[in-house]
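Page 42, continued from yesterday. The earlier attempt failed because a stray header line got pasted into the input along with the sequence. Redoing it now with the clean sequence only.
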Amino acid sequence: MAISWGTIKSLLLFFGPILLPKAISYYRSVRAAPQIHGVSIRPVPPHVSRALTILFIVAASFLIYTLPPFSPENIFSRTSSRLQIPTDVLFTRLLALRPGGLTSFDNVLRTKISSLDSRLLYFQFGPEVLANCQFCTAEDPNTYLYYFLPALLAPHLFNLVTLALITSGLFTGPEATGWRTPATLAAVALAFLDVYIVATFKHGDNARATRLEDINTFFWKMRVYRLISLAALDGLLGWLLYLSSTNRAFITPPSIASRIETSTRILDVARSKMSAMAILKNTISRNENLREKVNGYWVHEGRLMGEIMEEREVLEGVQNALENRIDMATIQGDAEAYARNVMGPFEGGGDVQI
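This time it went through. Structure tokens are written below.
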């Protein structure tokens, strides 16, 4: 059943005002997710970069195979012949285009497309199926479908294996495992849709075509659509993987256990540094040479700062800051409160609140 352009416009006018604000809101929430969860944008991890490279190569290969040099030959288009042309005339024209004569495949195909029904099936399943299938008959078109299924599903299975490898935790890491189920479902749905379209195609519609331009070259069109859709699926997965791995979108906030573990690790590192600093200060205090060097440093520091503070420009700058930019009463109050919070536990046994 064909859907008219008027129906599409009516649906857009009805659902557009409902879906557009939701789409904008979702886009803004996705863009703001890194700031909300306090996650910074990072470069693409090396293992994700390797996965993106594989996806690019596979997608580019699919697109390259849509080019005419890699497409099976359509002898009707090659010889500019209409569907009802006699078989002898068709292959006579084909012979004129082959300097080396007809191939063995051409001779087999010649015996298979003598009837109109077989020619209609030729445009549905292509020349390879029509020439190589030994049990297929034009009276039962489903036999051609059964023979064609392995070749039809081959690119889908190859792409499915590729997606399974890309979204594997062992190959790509945890950044890609979240996309494993959506990618698998999309690949399987694409394969089922392809099989459904091929199986339900009405090849008899071409029987009314009296000119070459009127023939629906279904097999060649579907081959292009199939490869482009697989390339688009790989490109979409690569884009989503790039966004999620660089924390640009689809942020998954860390769990409470992960946050506790991270905080504990930070505290352990800080405690280790404080312990090392205490050991260092204790060593300096007990060693006479080190103690003299430290005292000498602070004596030199005090003398140097005293000389600097005696300069006229410094005195004027300090006086200007104290009079115009700094509230000394507020600073003194904050200092006293900080000192009370620090020294309070040692005097009254309370908790430290800084």
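Notes: Residues 22 and 28 are 10 Å apart (CA to CA).
Reminder to self: strip header lines before submitting.
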